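Records of this kind hold a single protein each, on a pair of labelled lines. With that in mind, the following record should read easily:
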Amino acid sequence: MPYRRLPQTDLARIYALQKAAEMEGYRENGELVLSYQTSQAVQQFLNKFQRAHSKYQQYSDLSKNSSKNYRKEVQMARLYVSHFIQVMNMAIMRGELRKDIKIKYGLPVDSYNNPDLSTEEAVREWGERIINAEEERTRNGGVPIYNPTIAKVKVHWGIFNDDFFQQHNLRENIEKSLAEVTELRPEADDIILDVWNQIDSFYANLSIEARIEKCRNFGIIYYTRRKEREKAAADLQQPSIEF
């Protein structure tokens, strides 16, 4: 016996709701297949669910389109900040710079290891700290560090930093819009189930095959169990006996 299964994706939910909305006022033998109250509930909820899903999809598409370039910006900013610190440490080890200047950069005086730059937040914070400290030091007469210069570091860090907050706002918007869609899903399933039950009940007096065919016209999806599919396939393979 085929069985119904509620939609498993948001697009499938929207499709089922749209099919139900198309049935508004539909009659057979003068009787409404769906009640007026159900049709109104479907239309109102469909609009709300579509708006929520569209907003989530829009933010997701923006994130996909921008994430590739943003990852490159993070990588370049991390590379230049890290390389600048390494060059400064080597200059200190060669005696070209005093090691106590590292205090202004927030770096430990007696360690020549780079800070942890594995996260975007760390790249942003250390980049800002390094740029400000180097610019202040050179304004006061300090010898600039080259290869890379702080100007080069600032260019790549600045490109990354401009998009840093935009990406974080985008991620927050994705989470909020997804939460809104998630919150609406149970209501969507309840409405779809109510619609399907009404349609199924309306055609209850028909044969199973006729009822399934009628219900499919209104978007109800039926499935057969694996054992039933296997049995049907086996029956087809049975040789026919002619008398």
Summary: The radius of gyration is 32 Å. Residues 3-233 form one domain. The longest helix spans residues 36-93. The mean pLDDT is 89.
